[in-house]
């Protein structure tokens, strides 16, 4: 194994660990916050709008970190109807260019998300800034997914790629 | 532009993740209409303003927890005690258990993995023909798609803006009719093969009820809560998730909080992430397509050759069956619904009825090559070639096609509850 591959694998493992922690914590927090809202609404006839805003953003955290975890194993939903007709060698040839192209598209989205986030930050009032901070998951998410595609293109073909299921 | 679209389609069919294809499509479309591509991100961020979206990770978590916690075994035991004594009883048990379970797991393949492994040996042991057993299990993997709290219905409601409670209500009769048709086929087949039946045991039934009462109570609570107007969809989702978690960790003690739960959470977030990322990037693209009047252009093209609702529905079925054979159900809902909905409204099709037609078609798509996910999962689970499984599933597919015609042309099945 080349030093670059070894370094990429190590980085991938660290990333996966961080993503699992963020995604898992987000899911548990989402569960806790929604339960608090149910109790507050039904027993005390009240609610916490801030918790509602955070809960909706937690869905974004779960979505992006979950998608990053899927990127790590290249098991995203695909309509790869022609892959079944390719040989393993042909699949290997296609593997890296597709990952690099995917990484470029995600990086473009990360860049657009940064522009969006900066504008939101500039135009938000002081008491809205905490919600804008939560929106940082957009650029961070796209960067993470992009990084996974790049790392996967370095570490090589995933054994799962032999199967063509979505 | 056309060349770029062709390249994108080529990349998609050769394995580029769908969300990347849609993201690239959004970038291309925004450049071609001279719009700032940042608008795509604004649309993605709208995910954070969808209150019902919270229900998706929570219901998925509940389903995953129940799958890992032994609910499949308990349900099979219960339905076997209830229906196992009938001719074809075990096949009927398969149909009902899979439908029940899929409603919670969202037809994500978990049903075939979790229940298939339990039921296949039982069916073999009871001397059901192998082809019948494989076909039954393969087609049963998506049966509960129309029952609450189906993930597909939730997603359709979010995308189309149709009331999710109404969609849940509309799916119940078509879902039950499909179970009835498949159970009838199993009954007739078992009689033809002169299958042995087991004796009804009241003791077995009471034992099974004791064992699975808490599991069966869950859908009853959800249905009563939502349709009784006591709780919202999101509240139902959070209560379902906490119920499933407490049930499996504290009551049945099947899941260890520190050893197994982290894995279940990771699986849940990965499944939810793979769906919601598509939704996030597709929102920008579909909005651009709608802004560019694509549905209206399609409509004007259709109006020349399609004069009535029946013709439109027939074409819709053919189109959706092709879509179902090419695309995964969640991507199809996200990409196709915004384009189809305005056309259907023009032909005066109730959006709730349309939703059930849409999902019924895609449910059949689970069984059709090249992307019929049930075929792939069953192939892995049972170690059989996809073509053999497709042949085995053909009789069930035919029954489902008859059912699809009923659902499509008898709107009363879905809108009976309207005043």
Can you tag this structure with a few keywords?
heterodimer; A: 166 residues; mainly alpha; 5 helices; B: mainly alpha
Structure notes:
The complex is a heterodimer of chains A (166) and B (419). With 166 residues, chain A is mainly alpha-helical. Chain A has helices spanning 3-44, 49-72, 88-123, 129-134, 137-155. In chain A, helix 1 (3-44) packs antiparallel against helix 5 (137-155) and helix 3 packs antiparallel against helix 5. By secondary structure, chain B is mainly alpha-helical. Chain B is 77% helix and 0% strand. Chain B has helices at 2-13, 18-32, 38-45, 55-68, 71-83, 89-105, 110-125, 130-140, 151-160, 164-192, 202-227, 233-251, 261-291, 294-305, 309-326, 329-346, 351-365, 373-382, 386-409, 412-415. The chains are: A mainly alpha (166), B mainly alpha (419). The interface between A and B is large, with 64 and 68 residues.
Helix and strand arrangement:
The complex is a heterodimer of chains A (166) and B (419).
Chain A: H1 3-44, H2 49-72, H3 88-123, H4 129-134, H5 137-155
Helix pairs in contact in A: 1-2, 1-5, 2-5, 3-5
Chain B: H1 2-13, H2 18-32, H3 38-45, H4 55-68, H5 71-83, H6 89-105, H7 110-125, H8 130-140, H9 151-160, H10 164-192, H11 202-227, H12 233-251, H13 261-291, H14 294-305, H15 309-326, H16 329-346, H17 351-365, H18 373-382, H19 386-409, H20 412-415
Helix pairs in contact in B: 1-2, 2-13, 3-13, 4-6, 4-12, 4-13, 5-6, 5-11, 6-7, 6-8, 6-10, 7-8, 7-18, 8-18, 8-19, 9-16, 9-17, 10-17, 10-19, 11-12, 13-16, 14-16, 15-17, 16-17, 17-19, 18-19
